[in-house]
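Long-time lurker. I teach an intro course on protein structure, and each term I like to show students one example going from raw sequence to a predicted 3D structure in token notation. This year I'd like something fresh instead of my usual example. Would anyone be willing to generate the tokens for the chain below so I can use it in lecture? Attribution to the forum is fine with me.
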Amino acid sequence: MTVALVTGGESGIGAACARRLAKAGADVAITYFSNQAEAAKVVESVEDCGRKAMAVQCDVGHEDSVERLFDQVEQSLGPATWLVNSAGINMSGTPIVEMSVDTWQRTIDTDLTGAFLTCRKFVRSLGHGHGRIVNISSIHEKAPRSGGVDYDSAKGGLSQLTATLALELAPRRIGVNGVAPGMILTPMNQSAIDHPAAQGQGSGHSMGPRRNA
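-- Reply from a regular --
Happy to contribute to a lecture. Here you go:
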């Protein structure tokens, strides 16, 4: 039985991935940071596909939270064999001369360190079995924007993390891929939904620490 774990699965791209994986026959665990109500709706939609589902509160940027996450998923659904990293926060919109270390670190912790921690735990838990990892990045891994030094740096790092893991894990029969979408009209880009003229400016238009990729 395939068990898929989707971080940031309570909305946006993560929620869409969770539903699609359920339709493909996987039991699905999702993480959420604070929006338990939306996470519950995604769990219900997965169960409507005839699959098992669960939602776990998790801050992917903290090692102990990630460790607990995988333990809970394995106890309830079995060991995860697919991992989709969709959890993230948007660019702050702050110029570097005004950016605090806390702002920088919060984005790096969530968008880059979070994927490192979940990938590492996933591989350790998988042992020598087959597995799949998909990391959701952004067009801004290659197309920087003013005010996005935190986000652009994190996504650029995520691109290299993904490429390196693809090489490193191929002999272990673990496939690793990255997806770098442009603007998707998810809650992360609410300002573009509210102001359609902004939709030609690329993803990550919404300036603020909204969570979920």
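Some talking points for your students: The chain has six helices and six strands. The beta strands are 3-7, 27-32, 53-57, 82-85, 131-136, 174-179.
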